[in-house]
Design a protein that fits this description.
globular; about 40% strand; four-stranded antiparallel β-sheet; Nucleoside Triphosphate Pyrophosphohydrolase; alpha+beta
Length: about 160
Amino acid sequence: METLEHFGVYGVCINNDKLLCIKKNGGPYNGRYDLPGGSRQKSESLLESLHREFEEETSFKIAKIYKNSLFDTFVKLNDKQRVHHIFGLYDVELEKKENFKKVEEIINCCEINDSLGEEWVDISELNEQNASPLILKALEKSENFKAKNYYEWKIL
């Protein structure tokens, strides 16, 4: 099986148990929720790419970046090909952009964009049937930081 390689950077923003997602209209995650972000352009740093992709795909710009993690996954495209997706996840805080161009305007302008726009999605609704592996990894990572409740705890 041929393995294609893809590297990208993506932002993770969770507010009120909702994750900022984009809906994909192309590639191996077509029809699924994904994280805002994508590939570097020539001569861009990773953070420059992250900022640019957020501004292209959402109505937000990044105000703060808290931490990052690097992951990878393999996704089967067809019987002959799979994608090795290497991705950096950055926890971000956002602020609204003043001059926001809608995805339709960007697409019509000639820029390549595989996003149908942003959506805040309840974390409980995201699963393997409707979300990209990036989202699943981001949620798995965020779960590890939540406080564990011991409701049946007994003091000895």
